[in-house]
């Protein structure tokens, strides 16, 4: 079975498992796990922030950034279908007490964000943070343009807002643009990154920011029940992923382009531009295609009745990826034909 539903479905390679088994560990609640500390230092250096904290998930990393930089009653500006708005179980409202103002598109400009800033009056919510997602997951893995980020940073500084980067897939954005992770992250006050998406580690994320913010995040992580003990085992997987799986992301991007090109060649299918490892295609009968794919041995998802989404990653983009492409094309072709009564 080829699983193209998400890049979160990867399983640790034998080499990653060996690195995890060999990890030197200690009690991280005492801050005595040397592998966790090594990962946090490496990530802070890579992202170009003074400090980083290893956390269980991208959701926890985003929520700690909100908790550290907003107050209850505040409003956060973020892109359409941003993970922090739509896929974190309402945590922004439940934990930080914030509400969201959503831009029209996944990618937005400073002037769009500016239009959403609330009037400064005691009876309005206080706009206090702008969140950017790069790459944008539901936006089809699109890279958020760095020119927009630069303008958003000017706006945020002028207005006294914090600027947060949901960089769950910043590694993909870096490979796609040829810009360093530090360069992409530089304008942001806080950054979350994930090791369990395209990098292929079994779990773990980090939230990065100033020393003061990360000290506060450490306390908040404990409050949320996120203090873990000999978690160097997971940090070793993340370190292995950063060293060995980051350079191979270009391969996943090339695979996504090949898959997109094959789908675009089918009549009745329109493929959105592909920047990284996510392919979004419009076609009639999305659900029937997904069902047929499952019967044929390839999993992908329907985002809407007329939209499918396929994600490439290290478990599928090996030599047999051409088989996966052929199966997806067959599933789509057959369901389109059936839909037409053919
Ligand atoms: C852009 C983005 N941010 C955050 C997350 C949350 O990560 P996790 O599933 O580790 O909580 C995801 C998960 O898919 C994501 O795509």
Please tally the β strands and state the result: 13
Portion in helices: 40-55%
Strands in their spatial order, largest beta sheet: 2-8-7-6-5-3-4
Topology as a string of helices (H) and strands (E):
EHHEHEHHEHEHEHHEEHHHEEHEEEH
Main sheet properties: 7 strands, mixed
Shape, per Cα inertia axes: globular
- Can you tell me the CATH superfamily of the largest domain? Type I PLP-dependent aspartate aminotransferase-like (Major domain)
Mean model confidence by pLDDT: 97
Structure description:
This protein is an alpha/beta fold and 342 residues long. It folds into 2 domains: 14-244, Type I PLP-dependent aspartate aminotransferase-like (Major domain) (Aspartate Aminotransferase, domain 2, 3-Layer(aba) Sandwich); 248-339, Aspartate Aminotransferase, domain 1 (Alpha-Beta Complex), CATH 3.90.1150.10. The chain has helices spanning 14-21, 34-47, 58-69, 83-86, 91-96, 110-115, 146-159, 170-177, 181-185, 211-223, 232-245, 249-264, 286-296, 321-339; strands at 2-3, 51-55, 74-78, 99-102, 126-133, 162-167, 190-194, 205-209, 270-271, 278-282, 298-299, 301-304, 307-311. The strands form 3 sheets. The chain has a 7-stranded mixed β-sheet, sandwiched between helices. The longest helix is centred in the C-terminal third of the chain and has 19 residues, at 321-339. The radius of gyration is 21 Å and the shape is globular. The structure holds pyridoxal-5'-phosphate (PLP). Pyridoxal-5'-phosphate binds next to α3.
């Amino acid at each position: 079975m080829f699983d193209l539903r998400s890049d979160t479905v990867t399983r640790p390679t034998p080499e990653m498992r060996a690195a995890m088994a060999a990890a030197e560990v200690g009690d991280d609640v005492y801050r005595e796990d040397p592998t966790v500390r090594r990962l946090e230092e490496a990530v802070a250096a890579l992202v170009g922030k003074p400090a980083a904290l290893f956390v269980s998930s991208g959701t926890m990393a985003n929520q700690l950034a909100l908790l550290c930089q907003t107050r209850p009653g505040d409003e956060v500006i973020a892109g359409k279908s941003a993970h922090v708005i739509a896929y974190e179980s309402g945590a922004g409202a439940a934990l930080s007490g914030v509400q969201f103002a959503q831009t029209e598109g996944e990618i937005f400009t400073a002037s769009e964000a500016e239009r959403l800033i609330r009037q400064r009056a005691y009876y309005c919510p206080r706009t206090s943070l702008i969140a950017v997602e790069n790459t944008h997951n539901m936006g089809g893995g699109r890279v958020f343009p760095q020119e927009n980020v630069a303008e958003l940073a000017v706006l945020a500084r002028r207005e006294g807002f914090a600027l947060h980067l949901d960089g769950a897939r910043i590694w993909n954005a870096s490979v796609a643009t040829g810009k360093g992770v530090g360069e992409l992250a530089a304008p942001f006050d806080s950054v979350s990154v994930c090791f369990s998406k395209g990098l292929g580690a079994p779990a773990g994320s980090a939230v990065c920011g100033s020393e003061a913010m990360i000290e506060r995040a450490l306390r908040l992580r404990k409050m949320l029940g996120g203090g873990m003990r000999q978690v160097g085992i997971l940090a070793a997987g993340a370190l292995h992923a950063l060293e060995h799986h980051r350079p191979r992301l270009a391969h996943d991007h090339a695979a996504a382009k090949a898959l997109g090109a094959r789908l675009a060649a089918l009549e009745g299918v329109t493929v959105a531009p592909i920047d990284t490892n996510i392919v979004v295609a419009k076609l009639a009968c999305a659900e029937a295609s997904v069902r047929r794919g499952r019967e044929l041995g390839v999993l992908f998802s329907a985002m809407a009745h007329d939209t499918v989404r396929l994600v490439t990653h290290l478990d599928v983009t090996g030599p047999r990826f051409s088989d996966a492409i052929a199966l997806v094309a067959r599933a789509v072709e057959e369901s389109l034909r059936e839909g037409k009564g053919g």
